Amino acid sequence: MSFPYFVDEKDEPFPTQPLDNFHGMTSYVIRTGESIKHGWDQFNALMTNQEVEVEGTLNVDGIGAPLKAGGKILGAIFVQSYTEGIGYTEKDDKVLAFIARHIATALIRLRAIEAERQRNAELATLNSVGEVLVKTMDLKTLTRIVGDKVRDSFDTDSVTIMLFDGQTNLIHIYYEFDKNEGGYIDYVAPFPLGTGLASQVITSRQPLMLGTLEEEIANGAYFPPEIIEKARAPLANRGLVCQS
Prior knowledge:
It is built from seven helices and six strands. It has helices spanning 25-32, 41-48, 90-135, 139-154, 197-204, 213-218, 225-237, and strands spanning 61-69, 72-81, 158-165, 170-178, 183-184, 191-192. The model is unreliable at 234-244 (pLDDT under 50).
């Protein structure tokens, strides 16, 4: 669950985390596809049934609607008031539901455009690799061109290409670019096949998609303690997401 748009005078947004980490009204909307009506009746009933927990600063009133399109829940939109005497009405419930439907439709269109862009970028990368193979058999040149194409296609700050030598049981890094480390990294010593992320991908022959630090660690990634502490610090210092 991520927060591409978040404005709140009381709370700070959470960083991207699994939906299971959230138990407030917004996450309830996403899990169930149900709207949150104005007033306290629905909230009190959900609290009594332990379907939601209070997260963040308690509001005076709030309404929420799922971003739903094609039978799928894409997210939620939630509006709340902290000011006594300023609440919402049944008309507001309907207006937010109407807005949510249009946002969901726009998101579907944007995702389709992005998917097409990604497919085109992948084809361009494949074509570039084919052209390089025709012109050179130099592995370093090939990986440099492929790495740059991948970096451009995914608009990412870090790309690494590794090759495994089964005879020596070593993993060799032929290409590494890290923006935070100053760009291209010319040489990294080969390392043995072991328990890290690269080793897991190589031994399992399966891709990995990891969205959190915890997922990376669970799959064998190693980070120095100071890096882990820095990454987790925002979670301890921030208030909960604006849900009630």
